[in-house]
Structures are given as C-alpha cells and as structure tokens.
Design a protein that fits this description.
Layout lengths: L1 H27 L5 H18 L18
Helix pairs in contact: 1-2
C-alpha cells in the first residue's frame, strides 16, 4: 500500500513538473499556439481526474428491513 501511495505522489509531482515545463516553453516561444495550450491543459486536467481515487461505495446498514411499514 505504501508503494502505491509513494508512486502516486511521485506521479503527481512529475505531472506538475511537466506542466511547468510546457508553460515555460509556451512563454519562450511565440509560435506556441493558444489552441495547443488549451489542449495541453485539458490533457493535464484529465490525467489529474484519473489520478483521484473513486469514492467508496455506500455501505448498506446491517439488520432487517421491515417492508410492511
């Protein structure tokens, strides 16, 4: 479990680093189209969404349910 968490943190750090590099590249080069920037932002956002863990399913209550009430 610790390995998975460590890998997840490492992946998040590397993604942030890559995003910073692309922003610096965009600032240095005028020909880096705004459309390309928007597409890269969408890719980074999609990856972050995939990295978030899903919500655990709701647990059913323990016991009997009286269906006559």
């Amino acid at each position: 479990m610790r390995e998975v968490l460590a890998t997840h943190k490492e992946l998040a750090a590397r993604l942030a680093e890559l995003e910073d590099k692309t922003e610096l590249l965009a600032l240095k080069h005028d020909h880096f189209a705004g459309n390309t920037r928007a597409q890269l932002k969408q890719v980074f956002d999609a990856i972050r969404q995939l990295m978030t863990p899903p919500e655990p399913p709701k647990k059913r209550p323990i016991g009997f349910i009286n269906s006559k009430e």
